From TrEMBL:
Keyword Nucleus: no
Biased composition (Basic and acidic residues): 290-305, 361-375
Keyword vocabulary terms for this entry: Signal
Organism (species): Caenorhabditis remanei (Caenorhabditis vulgaris)
GO molecular function, one term: lipase activity
Biased composition (Basic residues): 322-345
Name this polypeptide is given: CRE-LIPS-6 protein
InterPro entries reported for this sequence: AB_hydrolase_fold, Lipase_EstA/Esterase_EstB
Polar residues: compositionally biased ranges: 279-288
Record has S-adenosyl-L-methionine as a keyword: no
Region feature (Disordered): 279-375
Superkingdom field: Eukaryota
Pfam families tied to this protein: Lipase_2
């Protein structure tokens, strides 16, 4: 998507649905809690649609704040169709947030990598949305190259290209994670690591250091469920790459669409994405019992308890407690005699021979003198 496409979209769609800037309420909060340079990094005023989100909720909602992380050569305003379709389905526009982590909408620029700076930017924005909304958890959707960046932001730890510590995992603050056309295993365009986007350190080349880092750990993206939305017609990331499904990741539940190209998979599947986010919403979950079902079960249990109590009231006498069987007294066994073992007798040492007396020595010498010498 280039800048002409974005400009046409802004001309057709109402800006309240585009969200091409930060709401004044959110802006005032950021200025109170962040330094001017940090606010500027979030807002990205130099871009056409550098960021959006925030505002005071006008009615109660069961939806959680959603943070959208764009892919290569896009910016926050690229989500105008997602914002429009979410709002049309009843999702509060005040609970949709996005910032731009790259240089925005450009003609195909492949000299971009998943640097530590981009990861830190997204992680700080997630933390800012959590503080601003006061929500216990948020939902995160990562698109294309934005998916591995968002996953690393959630995972934390050290950057692979810099000796920078991102901090501990923030998995506990993420309810649902969705990867849309995500390059989680690499891209079919990176068969040979010639371009910056395909470098073996922070690029989308198969088994790059960055991809090995985020795929080494498993099931850290969310606390409820993670999804993987991919298309067989995606020829940018590809449905298959690096000898496996390009968008898959451990713990991600795959939702496959047929024939959609890369941009269609990203921006024309808002209904599917919102359905995934609302799967665990009270009363709509397919994997968990709804509140109504719980009430029915509780009501039935109360009736059963009441009837049982009435049955007990009808009885004039309390039921006799079952007698415990008598145990026969155990015979006391006679104490065993303790036989002390005797220590083995010591063997007598052989008697020592007495030394020869002086008389015997003199007699032996005389015998030797009488013997004739042999010639």
């Amino acid at each position: 998507m280039n800048w002409i496409t974005v400009a046409l979209a802004l001309a057709v769609v109402d800006l309240s649905f585009c969200g091409n800037n930060i709401h004044p309420h959110f802006m005032a909060w950021m200025k109170q809690n962040y330094k001017p340079e940090e606010v500027a990094a979030f807002v990205r005023d130099e871009l056409t649609t550098g960021s959006f989100g925030g505002g005071v909720l006008t009615q109660e909602t069961t939806d959680r704040p959603v943070i959208l992380v764009h892919g290569l050569n896009n910016e926050a305003g690229s989500f105008w169709k997602i914002a429009r379709d979410f709002a049309a389905a009843g999702h509060p526009i005040q609970y949709l947030f996005a910032t731009t982590w790259g240089r925005g909408v450009e003609q195909t620029n492949l000299n971009v990598a998943m640097s530590c700076g981009h990861v830190r930017h997204i992680r700080r924005f997630i933390e800012a949305v959590l503080k601003y909304t006061g929500a216990p958890q948020v939902d995160i959707i990562g698109y294309s190259m934005g998916s591995p960046i968002a996953r690393k932001a959630i995972m934390g730890g050290k950057c692979v290209d810099e000796n920078v510590e991102l901090g501990q995992s923030i998995q506990s603050r993420v309810h649902t994670y969705i990867s849309v056309a995500g390059a989680n295993q690499g891209s079919q365009l990176c068969m040979f690591p010639f371009l910056e986007i395909c470098n073996m350190n922070t690029g989308l080349a198969c088994n790059s250091k960055f991809l090995n880092d985020i795929n080494w750990f498993k099931n850290y993206e969310s606390t409820y469920k993670s999804f993987n939305l991919a298309s067989t017609g995606d020829f940018v990331v590809g449905y298959m790459a690096c000898g496996k499904k390009a968008s898959e990741f451990a713990g991600g539940h795959e939702y496959k669409v047929e024939g959609m190209n890369h941009e269609q998979t990203e921006f024309d599947t808002a209904a599917i994405q919102l359905k995934m986010l609302r799967e665990s919403t009270s009363g709509q979950s397919k994997s968990r019992p709804s509140v109504k079902e719980d009430k029915k079960k509780n009501a039935f249990a109360d009736v059963k308890k009441y009837l049982n109590s009435k049955r007990r009231d009808v009885r004039h006498t309390e039921p006799k407690k079952p007698k415990s069987p008598k145990r026969s007294p155990q015979k006391k066994s006679a104490p065993k005699k303790v036989i002390q073992k005797r220590a083995p007798a010591k063997k007598a040492s052989p008697p020592k021979r007495a030394a020869p007396s002086k008389k015997n020595q003199q007699r032996d010498t005389k015998k030797d003198q009488k013997k004739p010498a042999k010639h």
